[in-house]
Amino acid sequence: MADSFGKEETHEFLLESWLEFHDLVEAQPELRSLLFDPVTGLPTTPLLFPRIQNLLEERGEVSLLCVNIVRYSKIEEIYGWKVFDEVMCEVAGALESITGSVLRDSDIIAELMISGNSFVVVLSPPRNSIKIDLSARQMIVERVESAIRSHLSDTMEPALFKKFGCYVGASTIEPSENVRLERLVHHGLDSALSDSTARESIDAALRIEALRNILAEESVRTLVHPIFKLDDFSIVGYEALSRGPEGSEFERPDKLFKVAYDADLVMRLERLCRKKALEAAAALPEGRLLFLNIEPEAVCDPELREIMTTTLLMQSNLTPDRMVLEITERSAITDFTAFRSTLEYLRVLGFHVAVDDAGAGYGSLQCLAEVHPEWLKVDISLVRGIDMDPVREQLVAGLVAFAEKMHVHLVAEGVETEAELAKLREIGVGYGQGFLFSLPVEPFPADEAYESLKSL
Predict the structure, then answer these.
(1) Which of 35, 178, 257, 392 sits in a 20 to 30 Å window from 385, CA-based?
(2) Tens digit of pLDDT for each residue in 282-300?
(3) Which stretches within 98-245 are classed as H helix?
(4) DSSP conformation class of 3
């Protein structure tokens, strides 16, 4: 992204100011780092003051937008700071792409602070009016919010996109003889940020109430997704997938758990999903494994030990050696000592352990190093397009070599094309699951449903 404000002919008011200290900035990189964000290249709020002062003098008020990017989980702890930086660049790109349509060419975009998670837009007044009325401002807020979400949905990996929210707030600054311009601006920015936070809070409260109803009514169901050996397409097991009420936004498990983490209800949700999965597993065909997703913090749940050794497990006709506890990566593991202790206890009982999303971020690699799993699932981001990408091919080949050396079963997730399948077989991946083979289904389909796979 360019280091200037973009369309120079509409930004003379800033360009003139900028040129005055251009040489000084170039001579002092540390000064430049205070005025422009090093990740997005956008200006920071101090460079907005000339434009805001100009509008206050000409129009008597200035309208601001605050675009607040909300992280629903510990993104940087799990994926690393570079991934979050990439997301912020995507948001900056989204704002730039809607300039001239949703936003005016003369609207100014900046970052609230260096390496933060919020952007500022100084709205230029309409051509036929001195001021922007409240209804027009609200319409702009909703259109900007919708446009950014749509852009991010189109450009980001779905799994990553679901971990973020975008909320836009607005405020209006009016001149005051008794208050310095800088304080007026910061007060306006605080108000716009508070407005965006309020919009987020309203959404969150409604979703939390809906989740509490789901938990109270136990309206979670279980689907299964088969895992195949890639040499003969025999089924080795099924991953149990939890779904909320059909047709609702909570049908997606990422939405369920995202809200559960926000509301500190993840343990209750985890217990319900586990209960439903084990109830469904009563019909698990002989000789097959059940892969049961477990949140990292739920591994230390006292009820997990009880359930895995008593009534519910016995009722499902499962023995521990037919269960694989699949450690998901929705949250970072904070206490590896307790985590390892519980896993070792469960292993003594006969349970197997899998690490999900290998290669997706720093969290999965740390989990892999600490857990020493029997099963390892290659993240969909490495599988997608592996037949056309030598880098992905080499990364997965490295995991194959690791798995062989450590006697770990390697599963490729998200296989969708025959070309991907051929490449995975070529480099030695032993197992796979994905839409090429089967969609998630009600438990448990007859083996005859997959006879056609043998022709692949």
Answers:
(1) 257
(2) 889 999 999 999 887 777 7
(3) 134-155, 158-161, 181-217
(4) S
> Which residue ranges in the chain fall short of pLDDT 70?
1-33, 72-79, 115, 128, 130, 159, 305, 307-316, 329-334, 359-365
Residues 6+ apart with CB under 8 A from 348: none
Q: What is the DSSP letter of 103?
A: B
Task: Please say whether the beta carbons of 260 and 210 come within 8 A.
Answer: no
Domains by residue range for the chain, with CATH: 8-207 (3.30.70.270), 218-455 (3.20.20.450)
Cβ neighbours of 422 (radius 10 Å) = 12
218: how many CB neighbours lie within 10 A of its CB?
10
pTM over 0.70: no
Residue 134 structure tokens = 């409240």
Q: Which of 44, 11, 45, 15 is nearest to 181 (CA)?
A: 45
Which residues, at least 6 apart from 336, have a Cβ–Cβ distance to it below 8 Å? 370
User: C-alpha angle 437/443/445, rounded to 5°?
Assistant: 55
The predicted-structure confidence for 1-21, as pLDDT tens digits, reads as follows 434 344 444 445 454 554 454
Q: How far is CA 112 from CA 47, 59, 206, 389, in A?
A: 11, 23, 28, 37
In sequence order, the β-bridge partners of residue 221 are 243
DSSP symbol at 249: G
Structural contact between residues 323 and 354, judged by C-beta atoms closer than 8 angstroms: no
DSSP state of 106: T
User: How far is C-alpha 436 from the chain's CA centre?
Assistant: 24
For residue 284, give the DSSP letter. P
Q: What are the C-alpha distances in Å from 215 to residues 198, 207, 220, 313, 347?
A: 26, 12, 8, 21, 30
- Helix (H) or strand (E) segment spanning residue 76: helix 75-79
3-state secondary structure of 165: strand
What is the C-alpha to C-alpha distance for residues 286 and 15, in angstroms, rounded to an integer? 73
State how beta strands 375-378 and 352-358 pair: parallel
